[in-house]
Amino acid sequence: MCHPGWGRARAAAQRLSDFVRMRRVRDRIDREYARPLDVEALARGARMPAGRLGRRFRQAYGKSPYAYLTDRRVERAAVLLRHGGLGVAEVRSAVGCPSPAAFDTRFTELLGMSPDAYRSAHRASAEPGRNREAPAVGPHLARRPWHPSHP
User: Fold this and answer.
1) pLDDT tens digit string along 79-105?
2) DSSP one-letter code for 147
3) Contacts 24+ apart (CB under 8 A), 95-103
4) Fewest C-beta in 10 Å: which of 35, 80, 106, 118?
5) How far apart (Å, rounded) are the C-alpha atoms in residues 136 and 151?
6) What pLDDT score was predicted for residue 151?
7) Rounded to an integer, what distance in angstroms lies between the CA atom of residue 97 and that of residue 81?
8) Where do the structural domains in the chain lie, given as residue ranges?
9) DSSP for 70-112?
C-alpha cells in the first residue's frame, strides 16, 4: 500500500506541472496574439484537453484563454490606435481580430469607448499645438531703482 503523503505529493506535482503549462499557454498568447488562435489549438500545444485547459487557465489567471487573448488584442490595438497612424480596420487586422463586431464590443467594454472614438480622442490630444510668438512686451516687472551697491 502507498504512503498517504504520496497522493498529496503527486497532486502537488500535477498542479505545478499544470501551472507551468498555463504559463507557456499565456506566453504563447502574448507572442502570437495576431495569429489565428483558438482554445483547441492552445490545448493541443499544451498536450491537454481543451476543457481542462480552460479550467486550469481560469484558476491561474482569473479568465478564460479566449478572454485573455481578446484582452491582449485590445491592449495592442489601443497602442496602435494611439501611436500607429493606422485606421481602425487596419488595426483590427493587425491584431488578428476575426470578428470586427466582437472586437469592437470588447474594446468598448475594456476602454469605455469604441475604437473609432478612442482613435479620434487620442489623435486630437497627440496633435502638437500651434507655435505662437511670444508677446513683444513681456509682463511689467517691478524694478528696483539702480544703486551702485546693487549690480
Assistant:
1) 999 987 888 999 999 999 888 898 999
2) B
3) 95/33, 95/34, 96/33, 96/34, 96/35, 96/36, 96/37, 97/73, 98/36, 102/70, 103/70, 103/73, 103/74, 103/77
4) 35
5) 26
6) 53
7) 14
8) 10-125
9) HHHHHHHHHHHHHHS---HHHHHHHTT-S-HHHHHHHHHHHHS
